[in-house]
Structures are given as structure tokens and as C-alpha cells.
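Fold this sequence, please.
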Amino acid sequence: MASEAERAFQRFAVFGESSSSGAEMNNKNFSKLCKDCGIMDGKTVTSTDVDIVFSKVKAKNARTITFQQFQEAMKELGQKRFKGKSPDEALENIYKLMEGKDPATTGVTKATTVGGVSRLTDTSKYTGTHKERFDESGKGKGIAGREDVTDNSGYVSGYKGAGTYDKKGSN
């Protein structure tokens, strides 16, 4: 009888891997599981932690981990995620997070603002010309926010005397 954790492991193991039997999981799906189940919270457990733990528990030249190794990995991550709890208790909490979770296909593209991204997308910190391209709420103004929208009314770019040519010659 598979445990909740094992079932979650299998659901994530086969996600996007048509050839997978669900017995082993690759790094991509491992970090997806950690993300989708909230094990990776971007604070105590980051994607780097998840990658390191994955590399640590897998066999030397393997690209995937078994459920056995997965449990090892979860013990490690549990220690980070639930500091101060006993390894078993932390592991139990990790498995609680995984209960009934399916790989999220809905909103896969939702913008995750973890670490660096939120800094890069925080328009209030923009300076110079970039600042002009967003309104107060941080929404982009699109093409209107760009200074250098070309004005095609002149003869040559930058020619300011458009429409003044004929007047000069009629004296």
C-alpha cells in the first residue's frame, strides 16, 4: 500500500515524462514537487538547497532518484524547512505538505517573485529612462512610455522646420 508521500512522489515523477514509470524522479520534477508542495519557500529552503540535496542523495552518475533517496532528500529539506523539529517530525510535516498534491499544470506560468526576480521587477527601483516607462502602479506604459517614438512629420529625422519651406521662397 503506497503512502501519501509515495503517491505524490509518483505523480510528480511521471509529470511531463511520458517514459517514466513513476519509480524514479529527475531533478526538474523534484524541484517542481518542492515548489508546488510549498517545501521550497524561497526563504528557509531555496531552489539552490533543493538542487544540492538532490545531487547529494542521487547515485553518482544517475540523473534520477528513487523513492528511497527521495525520502533521504526530504529528511534533509525537512530539517531546513522546519528548524528545531526532530528529523522524523520534520519529515512528517513535509509529507503533510505533499498530501493530495498534484503537479500544478494550471498557472505554471504564474510569475514567481522569488529572490532576484522581485528585485528586477520592482519598478519603483528603476532609474533614468526606464523609470519613465511605468506608471505609479508599476504597470508598463507600453510604447507611449518610450521617449524616442519617431515623429515622421519632418523631412529628415530631427528636422524641426517641417512645413516652413514654401513660405521662405515666396518673398
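The mean pLDDT is 79. The CA atoms of residues 14 and 20 lie 5 Å apart.
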